[in-house]
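To the team - zinc ion complex, inputs and output below.
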Amino acid sequence: MKCTDILRITFNDMKINALLVFSAMAGIAAAVSCSKKNSVDLQQKVDEYAVVELTSPLLETLSDKDRQVLNLFRSAATVIDGLFWQQTFGDKSQLAAIDDQAAKDFAKINYGPWDRLDENAPFIDGYGEKPAGANYYPADITPEEFAAFGDPDKNSPYTVLRRDADGNLKCVWYRDEYRKSLDLVCKYLEEAAMITENPGLKNYLLKRVQAFRTDEYYESDLAWMDMKDSNMDIVIGPIENYDDKLNELKTSYECFILLKDGERSAELAKYVSMLPELQRILPCPEEYKTFVPGTSSDLNVYDAIYYAGDCNAGSKTIAINLPNDDRVQAVKGTRRLQLHNSITAKFGKILLPIGRLLVEPEQRKHLRSEAFFWNVTFHEVAHGLGVKETVNGKGSVDEALKDEKTTWEEAKADILGLFMVCNLIDRNEIPLISKEDAITTFIAGLVRSVRFGAASSHGRANMMCYNYLKDNGAFTRNSEGLYHIDFGKALEAIDSWAGLILKTQATGDYEFAKAYAEKNAVIHEPLAADIANVNGHNIPRDIRFDFIW
Ligand SMILES: [Zn+2]
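Output:
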């Protein structure tokens, strides 16, 4: 799992229509001459991704050997990037024929001619709809044909489906389909394993090489769980399945190269140890607080210095929660990695300009990067608090709240995250920021998130939260229509909104949850005008990277 903090578009209800797919295939074969949108439009689309120079002060702390290891990681990541191109699009060199620079740049951002922030709409002439199964399946496969295919390997996250000479489906393991490239990846990782002086990292790299060669990732995932003390990290492999819109099954290659922020990680460990106490002071009745949160959560802070493949396509990941394998989670849990420099970059390029546009001048000083970082980080922590089982025999909260469960869980994480940040600031545990900073930054952050609409649970959760805070006087508009935050009322609203969510979860009240979300997960005026204002000022939607090291 990863948090891109804006929606990942899903097509659960998309029915694949053979006609569409055939037209897509015909499109791919057609000559590539000019773009569907004109060049000016496409340049605007490119500019919606602000360029961020990705680097880290932590690079200064590395030894020569560490540097050599990083260079090998980077070589491996470059190969992984090429593999993701193959998976999501096919032959990348087809796009070399595009003569329009904006179209070329936008295709690079999207890893293909389909706009990832606009439901994969094609933007280059000659390309039709993106096949739902991308290049993990034959482009003309139908759900019915997939269902009828008898080979159980079809359900592996590590096989592609291809057609044999007679046109029949067959499964090909990733280790065979991508062998040449994977040999290179393995060579780089083995060299790095020989150089690194960290035994945990060495063990993980060698196990990962075995995984690439066998399509068995279990042992290497366990080894990754055991190498938390390393000052550098590489997340590499076929990991998430979001790109497979046909079955959400096939995994996409990606790579993050990461440096551990020891200081921030130590601060975070201190906060995590306070979780049982924070659970006790939640703003809700005692009977909802019987759950005792674990304090062994592995939550650390990193700077990302390289993104390749899936995680670099479209909107950028700012937090990682892995591994996905339930068997590994059952034995060792997961590791959660907060990517500090990427979080900070999204703040600077997107949230800060939104806040400056919408918040009254006197309160703009409260828009703070560190506040955004802690709000985002405590959102993750907050998922581990609250209620997991209903108090009235309706089973788990997830079972009881059915299709509303994710929206309410995300709403809970957002508001309890802010609740905790404010509480810890009161106790002088979080330095350098004030409650006013946390609240102002949070409210500007809501506008940033609702900009992407109600297509995701997170988007709905943010709309409910925005409307609750507004209806309870947390902010008003000054004579110029700018936000004026009433911090006293905001603190009261944080408590009462958290209380309402916890009650809904604890009582598993699905009818209320559904009706409330239907009424309140909505963008009313003047928020709609705010969003139009933000869009009109060309404030970026996401970021893209220049890797500076
Ligand atoms: Zn969340």
